[in-house]
Amino acid sequence: MKVKALSRSSDVYLPARNSEVSRLPRNLDPDLHPFERAREYTRALNATKLERVFAAPFVGQLGNGHVDGVYCLAKNMRRLNSVASGSGDGVIKYWHLSSREEEMSFTAHQGVVKGLAVTLEGNLLSCGMDNTVKLWNVMNTDHSGGPTKTFLGSSGFTGIDHHRSNPVFVTSSNAVQIWDENRSKPTADLSWGADNVNTVKFNQTEQSIIASTGSDRSIVIHDIRSNAPVQKLVMLMRTNAICWNPIEAFNFAAANEDHNVYLYDMRKLTRSLNVYKDHVSAVMDVDFSPTGQELATGSYDRTLRIYRVNEGHSRDVYHTKRMQRIFCVRFTMDARYIISGSDEGNVRLWRADAAARSNIKSARERSKLEYDAALKMRYKAMPEIRRISRHRHLPKPIKTASETKRIEVSSIKRKEDNMRRRSKKGTVPYPKEREKQIIGVAIKETENKV
Amino acid sequence: MAKLGKLKAKQPDIAAKKKLEEALRQVDDDEMSPSDSDDSFLAGDHDKDGGDESDGEGSAALDDVDQFGILKSAGNSPDGTDDDGDVADHDSESADETPSFSGTSDIDGSAQGITTPLSDIESDSPSLEENDDNAIRSLQKAIDDASRKPEEQTIKIKKRKKLGLPTHFTPTVDEDDGTFVPAKKKVTLDDIRAHTTSSFGTRSLARLDELEKRSKGKSEVVKSRLGRRLEARIDRAAAYEIAKAEVGKWEDTVKKNREAEHLEFPLQHSGGVETSDITNSVDADAEAYGEKLVYVLEDREFSLDEVLARRNELRRMRELMFREEMRAKRVKKIKSKTYRKIHKREKERAQEIAAQLDGEPEGEDEEDYDRLVKRARERMELRHKNTSKWARDVKRMNLHKDRGTREELEEMLRRGEDLTRKIEGDDEISDGDDDDALPSVLDGEEEAEKPNGIMAMKFMKEAEERLRKQTKEAFEELRRMEGGHDEMEEQVTDSAVKIINEGRRQYAPGGQEAKEAAGDAVEESNEADFAPGPLGRKMATIVVENGGILSATSIRQKSNRTESKKVEPKSAEASNPWIQDVEPGSVTKVHSVLSLSKDSTRDAKAEARLKRARKNAEKAANAVANGDADVKINVNQILQVRDVHDDGDTGADGFADSQLTMVYKGARRAKPAEFQQRELVKRAFAGDDVVREFEAEKKRTIEDEGDKEIDVTLPGWGSWTGKGVRKPQKKFVQKIEGIVPKNRKDSKLKNVIINEKAAKKSAKYTAGTVPFPYETREQYERSLRMPIGKQWATQTTVQRLTKPKVIVKPGAVVEPLSAPFAT
To answer: Mind giving me the DSSP string for B327-360?
Structure first.
């Protein structure tokens, strides 16, 4: 008996390697693959379920954490695996992310460390309530001799940020001050109004723009080219933190005391671009993913949430039993992990995508994951898939709080509706969700466009 | 800072102003000295000024200049001291500030005080685009200097204003003695001019005139410096504009990134290492960038694609060589002598060809001839059969679907046939036959060939005949089908005159029933027809379906073919209902089935019916003419069949009797143009008793979805036979609860049927709403239609469809974007 082997012309087929087993050709005859939609739906459903099965967001904590609460974090924008954290007892710790071990630890300030920033050389700038900004050489592990440099201010500092390409940094205290690394006195004062400035952030893309938030519920945009504050926005409640979008120069997110995060365009502050809801307490910190596609927020309600930039509700919520109020959150520079510092003194490392694993994958595995992701995306509106992918377990206090909040909000809405119904048409307008938190801006459109 | 351009433009003015100051100082020295004592109430104010006044004279003079400006501004109101109100708007504020200009105050400041009105600053600021830092700084400095203004002074002046006292030194010139007296009258240029006796300062005055003219062109009011806060605010507004413009440069990049199908991070290739050396100057950076670019261009001779292509090519060659080698090894092992013999010849031939190609002299003619003969034979044998390699390939690879190839193949086969015929010595068949690829089925006579052999035997002939008949029938049927008739219709046609109209197509069960009912009616009528109709009577049948297709054939065996053919063209004309021209003798349409025959009683009946119908039609026509006609679909009113008798031409021969003339009875004759559309609509929906059908359907639905009782009694179950056995009373009835008719959602909606059955099973696979990016259900459905798995698409397609939108290179630092943005 003669066995006929499958053969193919080398004109149409070329093995990738001589040793490679020839690939099984697929028959694309649709009759052989019926019920494509039903099958793909099932695959999507299974992929969704598997995603929930494999979701393990918490990687671990860094070292043994701090003794006091962690109130500030700084990441090196040019390196992946180093992070510094500052705690309430004035101690700064420098962490190695790959090993999750402490690299060095030193007492930097008397009282709480309020801000950390990384200089161009990779050194660390810290500021505290003891009226000093200190520069630390991170190459040198022994800091018993004190900092490399100390900058003295007139009052306690609340925040610090470094310019992306110049040896210039900005601090917030009772004023917004620009400092040169090589000079001991601030080079400029850009304050506008507020008694106390909470935080200050350089725009990393359009590098001369600074945003600061004041205790007078304001957000102020400064420009170091004209050495002046240029625009001020006043909101109903205080803004706790600000983060500029790394790929969209004019957009920034502001974490507000009113449980929401707002996305603003600095060119048009009369309306927020998006409102990120879901937290049930003040949002303490916000950070953009380096890809600019996601936001991580840490809140006083002891949860960490991740939002997609163009959606209004969180795509994931992280919490542990032991984690207390979160005061600082940072994405790592490869957009895969999130670091959080909380009140109980631990620095935690989370996966940005809970079900993702960072091991090396075969091409087959990778293509499978991509296919699954595409299917999940495609069928995400199907009720069952939606339910499964959205389901999260929440701690009871947060669950109750969100229930209460929902009831409160709906009650307010109902009252407004009643008012609207009983008053003359048009006298009680519908408040715009993206504008109602804004009290006003200093420089109005009309003022410039006369 | 936005006023920078403006300020630059004003430079000549400033120079002129310097001169003016000097001139005025001179004037003061000459003539205004006595008035110094009069402005005593402002003296204190002056003292409290910047405190850097060098000499009293100069400052006084300058003050006058300022005063002058103010007075001009006051000139707008009837009263120079008129208070604008308590509100500290910028007018009053500017008025307050004026005296604060000191003798040594900045030129810029004074220039602005005199020449630049507030409205200018504000209106021009957004349009200015210069952003020179130095200029901005100098401007700021100027503003700061200018606004160093004691508060007390303002308060004082305000107080004075309240009291109605003059707030400023407003000297007037007494015409008689040439001295200044404090008065409310304004000082004008003419006043000054009147007192410049010498030629000294005339140039300045001329310049001043010019300035005045210019300022008059814009506004009468010359405003002075603004309040510090306002200044700062305007500054900020301008700076904000600049910052906005700067940051707005990113817009295109942002848009591009947002619209991108895929974003691969890091977007920019500058790694973290490169940016570490940022202390370099911008120029150095630019240079380095250029160098890097050049280096990159020099280094890369091939693009990645090119390299890949080259590598693939090399690999392919290697692969081929390897295969050849393996083949050679295998062949080498063959021990068969025959194989060797054959292959020897082949090898020789190959060598020969190679030699020929190399240009070596050819062999003998004989060999050539032989080869030609061989080739010819081969052609004869293979080329013209579909067994050649080419033909086989064509068949195998389905290339015959390609038209050109197919024609070639056919041509080849035909040639082959010809050749075979030639070889067999049979040249009778003409070339004309060749044109028909397929032998005609119908021309049976032409096909008649002299059968021989077994084919000449009788039974074979008969069988062939039968076969031919069958084929012919089949062919005819096919042709008919092509013409739009179907078999059923044909069958119906055979029986009687039937005019069936089903109206619109219906998919509901009700529709089907109606159709069946109609079918029944037809059958009944057939029976009725056949009963009284004398046998062998000529009858014509007309079937009208869907208002369009008409066919008439005679059922009589002896029917005249020509007659039927006569009818047919009409039917063809009438095939389109919308362009159907209604004329006597064309189509008729009746809801119920009519049958016609020559039977006299029938005729009488028909006539009676006709009359009634005509009456109705007239009524309808009147109604339409009155404009109150409603287009109701009632075919009985519109169309009717009229017998030939009515027209009075009684056909002598049988067939003429059966000729049908169909008269259109609508109001067409009355107003043809107006009613054409109506008629068309009526006709299109003829036979639709929509309302009744709908009601029936609703009733049926209510019944279907309502409570149901099903008798599930099994016959014989629990029953006993025999004497004295009672019949079991109990019936087994199963109750299925449905929806009570009262509770139906459509119970009060007359014209609506709401389906109460929720599709529970499909709900699981149905999205509640159309998800975000899609706008309509169709869009969303379309997006789900094509599967993306590898079972249904090629690998490249799958890869393209499943490529994630955001790809982050593992282990890479994703830095924020930096200008210039180039991926």
So the answer is: HHHHHHT---HHHHHHHHHHHHHHHHHHHHHHTP
Report the complex ipTM.
Answer: 0.89
Q: Which chain B residues are closer than 8 Å to A30 by Cβ? A: 792
Asked if B316's CB is within 8 angstroms of A10's CB, the reply is yes
Measured between CA atoms, how close is B255 to chain A, in angstroms? Answer: 9
**Which among A68, A109, A104 is positioned nearest to A345, based on CA atoms?**
A68
pLDDT in tens, B566-582: 444 444 444 444 444 44
pLDDT tens-digit profile of B248-293?
Answer: 999 999 999 999 999 999 888 654 433 333 233 333 444 444 444 4
What does the DSSP 8-state code read for residue A133? E
Q: How far is A314 from chain B (nearest CA, A)?
A: 16
State whether A77 and B813 contact (CB < 8 Å).
yes
CB < 8 Å to B126, chain A = 448-450
Residue from A169, A206, A308 to probe the interface with B (highest B Cβ count within 10 Å): A206
User: Where in A5-148 does DSSP place strands (E)?
Assistant: 58-61, 70-75, 82-87, 91-96, 101-107, 113-118, 124-128, 132-136
Name which of A37, A205, A249 is nearest B784 (Cβ-Cβ): A37
Please state, in angstroms and as integers, the Cα–Cα distance from residue B179 to each residue in B81, B182, B193, following that order: 22, 10, 14
pLDDT tens-digit profile of B530-552? 433 333 344 333 333 343 333 33
Is B333 part of the contact surface with chain A (CB cutoff 8 Å)?
no
Q: Going along B396-522, which residue ranges are E strands?
A: 498-499
Q: Does B791 touch chain A (CB under 8 A)?
A: yes
CA A304, CA A316: separation in Å to the nearest integer? Answer: 8
Give Cα B524 distance to the centre of its chain: 55
pLDDT beneath 50, residues of chain B = 1-13, 16, 23-24, 27-131, 149-152, 166-167, 169-181, 271-298, 427-448, 485-502, 506, 508-600, 627-670, 823
Considering only the beta carbons, identify the residue of B239, B802, B810 that sits closest to A230: B239
The minimum CA-CA distance between A337 and chain B, rounded to whole Å, is: 11
For residue A47, give how far its alpha carbon lies from the nearest alpha carbon of chain B (Å). Answer: 14
**Cα–Cα distance for residue pair B526/A328, rounded to 1 Å:** 93
Burial status of residue B165 (CB atoms within 10 A of its CB: 0-12, 13-18, 19 or more) = exposed
Q: Which of A122, A209, A381 sits opposite B247 (nearest CB)?
A: A209
The candidate with the shortest Cα–Cα distance to A208, out of B317, B617, B243, is B243
Task: Specify whether the backbone of A428 is left (phi greater than 0), alpha (psi in -120 to 50) or beta.
Answer: beta
Q: Which residues make Cβ contacts (< 8 Å) with residue B782, sequence separation at least 6?
A: none
